[in-house]
Design a protein that fits this description.
The chain is of the alpha/beta class and 347 residues long. It has two domains: 5-99 and 322-334, NAD(P)-binding Rossmann-like Domain (Rossmann fold, 3-Layer(aba) Sandwich), CATH 3.40.50.720; 131-316, Dihydrodipicolinate Reductase, domain 2 (2-Layer Sandwich), CATH 3.30.360. The protein contains eight helices and 15 strands. The protein has helices at 15-26, 76-88, 130-145, 164-178, 210-223, 257-266, 284-287, 318-334; strands spanning 5-10, 31-38, 46-49, 52-55, 57-58, 69-72, 92-95, 124-126, 148-157, 197-198, 229-236, 243-251, 270-272, 293-300, 307-314. It has a seven-stranded mixed β-sheet with strand order 10-11-9-12-15-14-13. Strands 5-2-1-6-7-8 form a six-stranded parallel β-sheet, with helices on both faces. The longest helix has 17 residues, at 318-334. The chain is globular, with a radius of gyration of 20 Å. Homodimer. Its EC number is 1.2.1.11.
Length: 347
């Protein structure tokens, strides 16, 4: 990899931004210069990175001069405002929001699944939704051997999916409840501590929320399977960090369970966790702070000979967001896909 890469993190003070910083250091990413960008409210604050203090700057149309890669994690409205400006300035933007995921000319990438999609980028690459990434890493090895016909997935999503303030709110609510106080909800619409509720994103006319439709549409795009049948139920649960998912997969014909275990155990980005004797399978506590998607409890669906069931847990902030973005950046460097990539971007 080149040692001359200038990187900017847009949304550097958020939960994902902080994780991006940790991963850049942990993975020895080839940095020349690092620029930290955020809203004017956060400008002037200082963040320690590898023994030196970096001052957070307010993002502006001059922020991206000389920047090679922008890791954007500041929300969809911010990305819509700045991503094309950054790309026109010469950067490749890896965007963690949903702003561009559905655009036909914007690649949606999970490096373990569709790295080839990076070759067609025009200056912006979308990082998929956390639940989509985690499920994709777990099931794509099976899809490669025998195409999946239908997916039924239920998610159990942690507070981290709504950001650092939501995680803190969950902690405060838990303390209040234990102290006999009425919990107050500001970030979430309802108390999350000792509670759960269907995902609070907007509902469509069919009764599916935005989060559920992200799983449907993004999985189809990443797998290059536009006709893949998918239905999802997404639920917020009182877990601080790491999402869990129960997945039912339907194939055209039976899929051998032992073969499925072998494929997942050997798959990049996945780790098989199964101790049937002790009823020990993936848990959010074990997935927190770890890179792999933990997969287990793989079994034959007793209601259909062509279906498999599995359970997975993955760190929402790490592989579900920051790690996947860093891996995309590493892919761009490995394939030499930075130079001139933004020449067709228009604002």
């Amino acid at each position: 990899m080149s040692k001359d890469v200038n990187v900017a993190i847009l949304g550097a003070t958020g939960a994902v931004g902080k994780e991006l910083l940790e991963l850049l250091a942990e993975r020895d990413f080839p940095l020349k210069e690092l620029k930290l960008l955020a809203s004017p409210r956060s400008a002037g604050s200082k963040i320690n990175f590898q023994g030196r203090e970096i001052t957070v700057e307010a993002v502006s149309d001059k922020s991206f001069a000389g920047v090679d890669i922008v890791l954007a994690s500041a929300g969809g409205s911010i990305s819509k405002t700045w991503a094309k400006i950054a790309a026109k300035a010469g950067a490749v933007v890896i965007d963690n929001s949903s702003a561009f995921r559905g655009d036909d000319d914007v690649p949606l990438i999970v490096p373990e699944i569709n790295p080839e999609a990076a070759e067609g980028h025009q200056g912006i690459i979308a990082n998929p939704n956390c639940t989509t990434i985690l499920m994709g890493v777990a099931i794509y090895p099976l899809h490669q051997i025998q195409p999946i016909k239908r997916i039924v997935v239920s998610t159990y999503q942690s507070a981290s999916g709504a950001g650092a303030r939501a995680m803190e709110e969950a902690k405060v609510q838990a303390r209040d409840i234990l102290d006999g106080k009425q919990p107050q909800a500001e970030i979430f619409p309802y108390p999350i501590a000792f509670n759960l509720f269907p995902h609070n994103s907007p509902l469509n006319e069919q009764g599916y929320c935005e989060e559920e439709m992200k799983m449907v549409n993004e999985t189809r795009k990443i797998f290059n399977a536009p006709d893949l049948k998918i239905t999802a139920t997404c639920v917020r649960v009182p877990i601080l960090r790491a999402h869990s998912e129960a997945v039912n997969l339907e194939f055209e014909q039976p899929f051998d369970v032992d073969r499925a275990r072998e494929l997942i155990a050997a798959a990049p980005g996945a780790k098989l966790v199964e101790d049937w004797q002790n009823n020990y399978f993936p848990m959010p506590m074990d997935a927190t702070g770890r890179d792999p998607v933990l997969v287990g409890r793989i079994r034959q669906d007793i209601s259909s000979q062509n279906n498999l069931e599995l359970w997975l847990c993955g760190d929402q902030i790490r592989k579900g967001a920051a790690l996947n973005a860093i891996q995309i950046a590493e892919l761009l460097l490995e394939k030499n896909l930075l130079t001139g990539a933004n020449s067709t971007v228009s604002v």
